[in-house]
Amino acid sequence: MLTLKQIREDSAAVIDRLAVKGYDATQTVTLIGELDDKRKSIQVLLDNVLAGQNALAKDIGALYAAGKREEAEKAKSRSGELKEQSKFLEDELRDVTAKLNEEIVKLPNLPHETVPVGRTAEDNVIIKNFLTELSLPENPLPHWELAKKYDIIDFELGVKITGAGFPVYKGKGAALQRALISFFLERNIAAGYTEVMPPLMVNESSAFATGQLPDKEGQMYHATADNFYLIPTAEVPVTNIYRDTILGEDEFPIRMTAYTPCFRREAGSYGKDVRGLNRLHQFDKVEIVRIEHPQRSYDALYAMVEHVESLVAALGLPYRIVKLCGGDMSFHSALTYDFEVYSAGQDRWLEVSSVSNFETFQANRLKLRYRGHDKKTHLCHTLNGSALALPRILAALMENNQTSHGINIPGALQLYTGFATIDE
Asked: Which residues make Cβ contacts (< 8 Å) with residue 183, sequence separation at least 6?
């Protein structure tokens, strides 16, 4: 979340920057200022009352010792009044502080100064467009028809077992899924990322720390009996490894990678864009997460973009890199690059990765700091990216590599699959 210092020191700039995201922060920022002023005035009153209590406590003992019982009793009575007053002020301070924090967490992260102005995906800026020539049969099939033809993914069986959006991978389909996971993990590890295997459920504090709460609670599966949330991405548990941590400057950079199933309710999604593997409630993803010194976080972001590009390129997929406009960015991102691959069977581009810098937004919620050479603590920067999300990568691989006799497996994956084609 934004710091109170950020909001108070330059309220006009905060309002202007959030307007780039299409968010009118005027009312919230004004209310935050009023609540903060009220909090400060209550704190001054409380400090004065507590100081009076402390002074009286010393006087009472001295008066009793001097035999001035009547004066001591009056001082004791006044001390009781101050105690009641301090309790009232403490309760008021707690309420105002809670309301202040409720308003602060409503504000999205400030977009980086290079974020394009725009409202929808149509306003995003294509940074790179890498097309490859595809040799396809006439009237190429979409992946859901290929999956049925070669019996490698069963969507109907998933509906029977659980519901729509929970496919069952079979035979070479399951092997290809596993191969992609291993390929991405090994490439990430070779690039300096440490593999971790986190829990698939998190508590409320973890979900709040990375920005899923209170913004996206309706999109997460909630185990109400224990108040746990199924993770929508490995970013949540992996980043929370460093919650409530103070790092030394020599510990940067911290680079982690993790494979996890991900769970998303995708409430409100419907239509052709959700068919097949395009949008699932359970899917596999390999994630990369970095914790960086603020002065080096944008170099880290561009390095992550280059790394994700190398993964997509190694699979031989047509792809493009898109810089998201303000209106299409997530609540907690400062700058995001999306990767999209071309889907020949659907004749459309599919998003397969988002690579983002959150600057201090998550770190402030995480209480994740580093101790600088000035001996003071400062907020870290956090970053994450998909490297990569499997469903749409798998869809594009199937559609772009189909032949009249089967589906060819990219050479980079054959070591992991143990086969070169999927056929009847």
From this structure: 412, 413, 416
What are the phi and psi torsion angles at 404 (to 5°)? -70, -15
Query: For residues 280 and 166, is the Cβ–Cβ distance under 8 A?
Result: yes
What is the rounded CA–CA span in Å between residue 22 and residue 118?
A: 8
pLDDT of residue 28: 98
Residue 268 confidence (pLDDT): 59
The answer to whether residues 338 and 320 touch, using CB atoms and an 8 Å cutoff, is no
Per-residue DSSP letter, 402: B
Q: How many Å apart are CA 221 and CA 227, to the nearest integer?
A: 10
- Over residues 310-360, the pLDDT tens digits come to 999 999 999 999 999 999 999 999 999 999 999 999 999 999 999 999 999
Q: Which helix (H) or strand (E) holds 408?
A: strand 406-408
- Structure-token match 């999604």, residue found: 269
Which among 59, 18, 106, 88 is positioned nearest to 326, based on CA atoms? 18
Residue 163 token pair: 């519901």
In Å, how far are 177, 231, 234, 334, 410 from 283, measured between CA atoms?
Answer: 10, 11, 12, 26, 22
| CA angle (355 as vertex; 316, 249 as ends), nearest 5 | 125
Mean pLDDT value of segment 37-51: 97
Q: Which of the four pLDDT bands, split at 50, 70 and 90, describes residue 272?
A: low
**Which residues are paired to 371 by β-bridges?**
248, 377
- The per-type count for the chain, helices as H runs and strands as E runs, is 13, 18
Longest dimension (CA), the chain: 107
Which residue reads 């769970």 in tokens? 263
Look up residue 305 and give its amino acid: V
Report whether pLDDT(233) > 90: yes
Percentage of the chain exceeding pLDDT 90: 88
Amino acid letter, 321: I
- Joined together, the tokens standing for residue 287 give 């994630």
Angle between helices 171-190 and 390-400 (to 10 degrees): 120
Question: Which residue type occupies 2?
Answer: L
Which of 121, 172, 139 lies closest to 344 in space, CA to CA? Answer: 139
Tokens of 269: 């999604």
